[in-house]
Amino acid sequence: MNVTIPPHDPDSSGCQRISQVLARVGEKWSILIIITLAAGPRRFSEIKRSINGISQRMLTLCLRGLERDGLVKRTVYAVMPPHVEYELTALGHSLTEPVRALGAWASKHISDIDAARKEFDARVEHQGQTPFTTK
Amino acid sequence: MNVTIPPHDPDSSGCQRISQVLARVGEKWSILIIITLAAGPRRFSEIKRSINGISQRMLTLCLRGLERDGLVKRTVYAVMPPHVEYELTALGHSLTEPVRALGAWASKHISDIDAARKEFDARVEHQGQTPFTTK
DNA sequence: CCGTATCCCCTTGGATACTG
DNA sequence: CAGTATCCAAGGGGATACGG
């Protein structure tokens, strides 16, 4: 059964732009931030606390990037002390669907991947056995 | 202090591993390689030619990574000159589904993102200050 | 043809200290 | 609290040359 083969042109401008989007999505923290905000609006330090290991700098940069792309909305309340809330825009929420699909795939196959890595590493260790799969 | 995040916990081990998978997917060239191979097996130089701008080094590295994760299968034909073919494994093919979902999302919303970027940049420049990174 | 090895730049990203 | 600014280490990634 042949799956529908979509326009395959990694070289075209279309795929290049998609690649840019994926670069943002693939950025180390972006996905985690989006997932966090998917549950509702959060303050800066709430996000920081909920994502283990992220530095202040990277949180700022990632949020700026997401805001720039129209995925996150930043709201400043002019009070003292400052109160800033971040929330997903409609666009940001729409991203959570394919992201969840990817997350579901990852959850489902993470064990396969781990097994493949172990096998690969073991095979490499035995460098005598060339992976020749002569047909 | 800690608001419960019931459905998704970015801090949990599960999401951490998913993040690893996404890191691979988000790597600059991986997606393009997978998309290329989704159309069928390809030789090394065929992949290189079909992806504009990729260096030999990065193609090798990415293919190794994908092979290690069990997403791509490498077959060497012991002939002269060497003939090596790469193809997606079943696991690799299953990845194309969520990836396509993401790609579809990107295609659909790329204009929104571009518009948001323009607006954001204009807003920033209007304030007379470069906040940080204007990539 | 299919890589591996080397050099090197440049970005990413952490740690820290400092403002409003 | 919510950032900015600065320094610095690690590694991603290009260019090139060479081996099988």
Automatic annotation (TrEMBL), chains A, B:
Q: Which residues form a coiled coil?
A: none
- One Gene Ontology MF term: DNA binding
Q: Which UniProt keywords are present, listed alphabetically?
A: DNA-binding, Transcription, Transcription regulation
Q: Which Gene3D superfamilies match?
A: Winged helix-like DNA-binding domain superfamily/Winged helix DNA-binding domain
| InterPro entries in the record | HTH_HxlR (IPR002577), WH-like_DNA-bd_sf (IPR036388), WH_DNA-bd_sf (IPR036390)
Highest taxon of source: Bacteria
Domain HTH hxlR-type, residue spans = 15-114
Q: What is this protein called?
A: Transcriptional regulator
Species of provenance: Izhakiella australiensis
Lineage of origin: Bacteria, Pseudomonadati, Pseudomonadota, Gammaproteobacteria, Enterobacterales
